[in-house]
């Protein structure tokens, strides 16, 4: 049992996959947690239904044209909460007085401003939105230091590493860490050749063998760009150099990542592939609470398999390592180009193998610059998106 008032949780991206899992854990522990702010992009019906269930103090819809409809739906459902709209209102909510904890579960670079605002305001930041730390790692770390709050990773691999380190995000060298080993399921196309990948469809790419996730991260998992973004995320979160981060394919997704120490010990965190474990850990840390996740039956899952990733076929992972080594804003360029490429693939206008080609072309066109501030970074994000769209247009 917790003591005192429940923590007030802002769920940014409440209508998404991580948002839904978060609200499931929150609802299991009303004495500990309360969803005080819910936000969504444009799914107004879904946001209103979540408000009716969780009774927040504030609901925010990113699309300003939908604010009136949200207010009408809430009134019809007898829900009395403040209503706001627009990107700025989400950013304001992330740093405002209505929450002490922020779950950053917006997808893509659209989550950057609210993630930074929560960090600057010293909130407990539960980071699922990996794109924001990939884009702006040094700025996010600065904002965290200035705000004095904690960052607990929600991405399952980083949550696993956090659990296997002695002090969470501790100094790796001082803790005797030799390597961080990120596991990857390999996605739905593991073992396929490039020729076999040429004609795969968005539906096939979004059918992940182990996890149910939003469409963007599902495509990233199929290209292994997701693992590439996670390598960059691990570099920033744990201060690990690129040479100390390895990727190991583990198709069952039961070992969520591992930490190797200089004495030869390897610590791993295991569990069923259900994001509620990582979310519950991050919400309650340093305590542990029931997440509603079924116990792991290792005998039923044996044997566990591990293999090296195929970087020649899944080139996005190699490109992410390349961007990390280039440093500066290269990861932000990589991320922006990938967002445009994934959108085009999902829209049926770019073949699967074209995703890596497009990212590679944009990285070549915009050599890395140092990260100065958010404004410059956003300009570079825009330049990378424009370059990607132009290359796409010229290719058609
Ligand atoms: P999703 O597509 O299911 O949900 C995205 C949420 O963000 C929705 O609530 C949507 O309304 C909101 N959103 C989208 N665009 C927005 C915008 N422009 N402004 C404001 N809100 C916007 O995605 P998801 O799978 O829940 O993933 C969310 C984030 O968590 C991603 O960064 C993803 O990489 C990360 N993540 C997800 C998982 C998973 O299992 N789903 C695991 C690890 C990390
Ligand atoms: Mg992950």
From TrEMBL:
State the reactions this protein catalyses. Answer: 2-C-methyl-D-erythritol 4-phosphate + NADP(+) = 1-deoxy-D-xylulose 5-phosphate + NADPH + H(+)
Q: Does the keyword Amino-acid biosynthesis apply?
A: no
Q: Which UniProt keywords apply?
A: Isomerase, Isoprene biosynthesis, Magnesium, Manganese, Metal-binding, NADP, Oxidoreductase
- Taken from the record, one Pfam family name reads DXP_reductoisom
User: GO MF terms on file?
Assistant: 1-deoxy-D-xylulose-5-phosphate reductoisomerase activity; isomerase activity; manganese ion binding; NADPH binding
Q: What are the binding positions for NADPH in this chain?
A: 15-18, 43, 129, 131, 214
List, separated by semicolons, the cofactors it needs.
Mg(2+); Mn(2+)
Residues annotated for 1-deoxy-D-xylulose 5-phosphate binding in this entry: 130, 156-157, 185, 208, 221, 226-227, 230
Name the residues that bind Mn(2+). 155, 157, 230
- The source's domain of life comes to Bacteria
Per the UniProt record, which EC number(s) apply here? Answer: 1.1.1.267
Give a yes or no for keyword Ion transport in this entry: no
Q: Please state every residue range assigned to the domain named 1-deoxy-D-xylulose 5-phosphate reductoisomerase N-terminal.
A: 9-137
List the SUPFAM superfamilies. Answer: 1-deoxy-D-xylulose-5-phosphate reductoisomerase, C-terminal domain (SSF69055), Glyceraldehyde-3-phosphate dehydrogenase-like, C-terminal domain (SSF55347), NAD(P)-binding Rossmann-fold domains (SSF51735)
Which positions, given as ranges, span the membrane?
none
Q: In which pathway does it act?
A: Isoprenoid biosynthesis; isopentenyl diphosphate biosynthesis via DXP pathway; isopentenyl diphosphate from 1-deoxy-D-xylulose 5-phosphate: step 1/6
Q: Where is the DXP reductoisomerase C-terminal domain?
A: 270-386
Instruction: Indicate the segments forming the 1-deoxy-D-xylulose 5-phosphate reductoisomerase C-terminal domain, all copies.
Output: 151-238
GO biological process terms, semicolon-separated = isopentenyl diphosphate biosynthetic process, methylerythritol 4-phosphate pathway involved in terpenoid biosynthetic process
Q: What does this protein do?
A: Catalyzes the NADPH-dependent rearrangement and reduction of 1-deoxy-D-xylulose-5-phosphate (DXP) to 2-C-methyl-D-erythritol 4-phosphate (MEP).
Q: Which family does it belong to?
A: Belongs to the DXR family.
Official protein name in the record: 1-deoxy-D-xylulose 5-phosphate reductoisomerase
Q: Which gene encodes it?
A: dxr
């Amino acid at each position: 049992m917790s003591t005192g008032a429940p923590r007030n949780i802002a769920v940014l991206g409440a209508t998404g996959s991580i948002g839904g899992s978060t609200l499931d854990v929150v609802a299991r522990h009303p004495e500990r947690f309360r969803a005080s702010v819910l936000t969504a992009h444009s799914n107004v019906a879904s946001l209103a239904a979540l408000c009716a269930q969780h009774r927040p103090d504030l609901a925010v819809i990113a699309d300003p044209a939908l604010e009136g409809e949200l207010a009408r739906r809430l009134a019809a459902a007898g829900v009395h909460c403040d209503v706001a709209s627009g990107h700025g209102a989400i950013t304001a909510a992330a740093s405002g007085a209505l929450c002490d904890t922020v779950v950053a579960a917006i997808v893509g670079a659209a989550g950057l401003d609210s993630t930074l605002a929560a960090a600057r305001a010293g909130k407990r930041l539960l980071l699922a939105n990996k794109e924001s730390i990939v884009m702006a790692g040094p700025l996010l770390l600065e904002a965290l230091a200035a705000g004095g709050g904690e960052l607990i990773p929600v991405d399952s691999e980083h949550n696993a590493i956090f659990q296997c380190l002695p002090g969470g995000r501790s100094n790796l060298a001082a803790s005797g860490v030799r390597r961080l080993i990120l596991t990857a399921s390999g996605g739905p196309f593991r073992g396929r050749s490039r020729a076999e990948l040429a004609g795969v469809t968005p539906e096939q790419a979004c059918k992940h063998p182990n996890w149910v996730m939003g469409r963007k991260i599902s495509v990233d998992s199929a290209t292994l760009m997701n693992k590439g973004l996670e390598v960059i995320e691990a570099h920033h979160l744990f201060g690990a150099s690129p040479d100390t981060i390895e990727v190991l394919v583990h198709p069952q997704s039961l070992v969520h990542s591992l930490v190797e120490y200089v004495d030869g010990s390897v610590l791993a965190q295991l569990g069923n592939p259900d994001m509620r474990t990582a979310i519950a850990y991050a919400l309650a840390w340093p305590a542990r609470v029931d997440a509603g996740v079924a116990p792991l039956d290792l005998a039923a899952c044996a044997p566990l398999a591990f293999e090296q990733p195929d970087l020649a076929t899944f080139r996005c992972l190699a490109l992410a390592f390349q961007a990390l080594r280039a440093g500066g804003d290269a990861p932000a360029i990589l991320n922006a180009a990938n967002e445009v490429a994934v959108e085009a693939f999902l829209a049926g206008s770019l073949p699967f193998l074209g995703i890596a080609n497009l990212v590679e072309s944009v990285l070549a066109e915009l050599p890395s610059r140092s990260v100065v501030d958010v404004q410059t970074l956003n300009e570079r994000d825009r330049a990378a998106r424009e370059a990607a769209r132009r290359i796409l247009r010229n290719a058609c």
